[in-house]
## 1
Amino acid sequence: MAKTIIPIGPYHPLQEEPEFFILTVEGETVVDIDLRIGYNHRGIEKLCEQQTYDQVTFVVERVCGICSTSHPFAYTQAVEDILSIEAPPRAQYIRTIIAEGERLHSHLLWLGLAGHFLGYNTIFMWAWKLREEILDVMEILSGNRNNYAMFKVGGVLRDIKKEDIPTVQKKVDSIVPTLKKLRSAVMDDPVLHARTKGIGVLSREAAIDYCAVGPTARASGVARDIRKNSPYGVYDQVDWNMVVTENGDVFDKVLVRLGEMFESVKIITACLSQLPEGEIDCHITEVPPGEGIGHIEAPRGECFHYVRSDGTNRPERHKIRAPTFMNLPTFKKTVIGGKIPDTVITLAAIDPCYCCTERMTVQDLKGQKLYTGEDLIRLSQEKTDQIIAEMRR
Amino acid sequence: MTRDEILQQITHRFSEEIIGKYEKSDKRVYFDISVSAIVPMAQFIFKDLRARFNIASAVDGRERMEILYHFTAEDADLVLSLRVILPKSKLEVDSLTPVFTAAHWIEREIHELFGINFKGHPKLERLLLPEDWPEGVHPLRKDYKEWDPGAIRDRGA
């Protein structure tokens, strides 16, 4: 099959990773999808080999703009695994609070974008307004709205001030009523059901075969959550539930993320009330030779770091695996056989990033370019309008 | 299945293939295995023990190349790492992609960044590096030197 790839505009490294999708279509049905990544490959693993252990924490924080806490979290776990130590209890609580705040803002960001792709800009406005509250919370706690720079090997860099806790609690609580409203809107809206139920289904078997992680796997009935299976931080000391659904379609992925946000609020509330007094750092001076593995549950799934130390002040090897690396290839299962207007939301359902969809072209079997990313979002929104019109009849 | 049962089953079944075993902690166990044993062992751990494949990490030791295959046994809260050691003269190992699809991308990545050949991989093409990157230049190797003197790099202060 002859293929002509025409890149649209300059690359958009707005968020973490611009990918390039080539859809092959027959009429309206997608028959093949090819992926190309690496447009934003920055050689961070190589860079980490040239930095000291303390500097690497800040380098890996820049792997991703959205889950900027997950990578330092996994990295510090890995180095602490080499050292066979654990951070002091208060530091563990602070780490957990920051990680859950990040999950809240990441899921809200995704929910807003998913709403936008479907033509529900009200959801987009609501979700991003809520996200603003969470970003304010992060600013109070860490001084930064993104890239919090809270982590270091052996502890955290900043303490949580006692006088900030009531404000933080109030802000976190304030998102719950709107979240409930959002959830009932998703559960009750027949148009959303028509657009997302049975669309982009990832079967349980495929999720296991692809080793999908995070909400992508949990929506397909695979009960995997590092926070439950291999508790780190203080996830085993607070009460919360893993959210698992069975169908594997886009609707279930929305449900999992909505459910997780309520759990995150629960975890933050519990952590803030139980926060113990004490040290926040155990002052590491040097890292002995050895190897360590750290894995944590990022908003999108398991984030995995492997660090090898040779006794110097720099890692000999640092392997980073972000969750999307495992989740992206599942498109081969979810997109093929679907319709073009459903592609956008199916690709968005694993929560890659905005620019992913921007980097997509559609080809018919002769290799001619048909749609750009913007066209696809428009097609998707038109389909929703059409369903609404049909339902009104 | 508990942690001890899992470890016992593996050591019992693959007693000849396992060269060394190292228990770093309750949650992390490393096995050094012979190169030919990777497919049957990975298959056993993935299919029979129902562990999840995390990822593979390649490490460039100066005289040899290592690949670590990490698996997580979720119920037992255990990360198993299988280590194969390849001599620099023969960088070749059997592909795991026929056993589970999850190995597809990481094998392509290791192939281009370290120059290790995965026998039986269905599509061993470039994943991350651009099309115009020269053949035989593997950036994550320790002896890597910049091949393009004209490249624009931010060298810092």
Note: Chain A has 17 helices and nine strands.
## 2
Amino acid sequence: MGPLIPQGYVNSDLNLFFAFVIGLGFGYVLEQGGFSNSKKLAGVFYGYDFVVLRVFFTAALTAAIGLLLFSYMGLVEYDMLYVNPTFVKAAIVGGIIMGFGFILGGYCPGTSMVGAVIGKIDAMFFVVGLMGGVFFFGSFYETFKPLYEADNLGGILVYDSLGVDRDWFVFIFGLIALAAFIITRKIEDRINGVELLPKGLFHPSYRMPFFMMLFLAALNLYLPQSPRAKWNETDAKTLLGEAAAEVHYAMIDEVAYKLLHESENDLMLVDVRPAEDFQRFALPGAKNLPLKEVLGQKAGKLLDDSNKKVVIYSYSSTDADQAWMLLRREGHKDIRVLKGGLNGFFTEFFVENHQTQSRNEKEQFDTRFRERAMKAFKTGEAAEKIISKGKPVTTIVDIEPPKAGKGGC
Amino acid sequence: MEQKPKAYMNPYLAGFLLGLVLLSAFFITGRGLGASGAAKSVVIETIGSVAPEYAKENSFYASFFATGDGRPMRNWLVYLTLGVLGGAFFSGFLSGRAGFKIDKGVRITNATRLIFAVAGGFLFGVGSQFGRGCTSGAALSGMAVLSTAGFITVIAIFGTGYAIAYFFRKLWIN
């Protein structure tokens, strides 16, 4: 389901609105947590106030565990999250420079803005310096570039780098944070004098969120490996009902008609045959999604991005039916299968002598339509028609009749 | 001190809530939080309007104007930061913490504090460009998605901080 905007569940125009709303929460929590006070922030380095460590690690753990659980429940597509790329040298150099900046300035960029807006003059000066620093970097960009761009390892993940299991990593990370909370509390007490503060292992005591997190981290560790239940998954009974009722079939005539009338074409044709077959020939405008990859990420993207009605086809209906079943099970809606498949399509429009005597008006109309459509497809008129519209079509391959021996059941 | 400012929120609760904000950022937009990005946008916008010729020649700025819609301020991180300013002001105002003030150690003058604040900001500006984000963007958001870069940045920032804290102790402690 999520992330909502990259997946197209929420209009991307709302992106900036959400940015603002999330920012409100970010700023509010930082200020409430005491991050507007540079003396308090710097305390983490001198042992008189570890608020930075507490807030920072609790937040990182909450979000990390939250994302894993969301991903487990199928609420978020983990692969679509932005993972900041690792440039080892630049990250270390940048971190060291920022470490100096933290000690000297007492703020980091986010907290300085929080401080500046409520009237902290030192924070305002920090922000001015921050802009100066960015300008300095920009001015000497060419000089810094080799270091800035050295050793790009891409969006690698820390547990892979360390060679440990992801869930164990998070759990141990939680334990380390827990240990750090206890130790820093002792240090703080010694430096400030214990009498000043109420007793307790976790003072300031807010054990609930933290122990809940640790519990979740442990839960995450012991959950069975990825059943990845989708929130919108269709259950077997519904599927059986739909399959038995055969409401999921798109008729050949409808597809042919829409291919010939671009303005009325609200279909997205999805070819589930192997890529080699697709390369040889396919219906105009069709996109290739081999049956094997039907549950992959590409499939989700292709189907979710489109607001057209999806029609799946293969040589016959068999592979397409399987793909339909799988996709419906994943929760995709508005998907149909081309009845009779490509073979049926060719029989209707490329083989002339199958027609029988038409008896009533309806059948005569159908016959006339098919004759016209046959002409159009055979002369390649259909493909040209689509090209000439200049619509974005990924693959256009002229239709050829199937070669002997090739094809479905 | 007639009106005593309210106490700060419990840090674990604040961290938990901050984690939820971060989680919702990832859930909605697929990316984390950031703060230095907005500073970068302001600088780029300023250079672009004050010295457009220079901006065109310098690849740091030029790449920004070449890609996208050429409007650095219409940027996710800029709107996020506007929200941060709003949220922080709201919080500080409600808790009676709004007002002009300089926080510092007792042994230094205000002028010294401000000079070091500018210097620290400057270093953060340079460092956040190298690190591709600051404490929020690279470190916190990076840790949330378990990126290696996030953990390296955290260790480098805090490791350096602890390594040099002693030499700058006059700034903060007695």
Note: Confidence is low (pLDDT under 50) at residues 226-231, 386-409 of chain A.
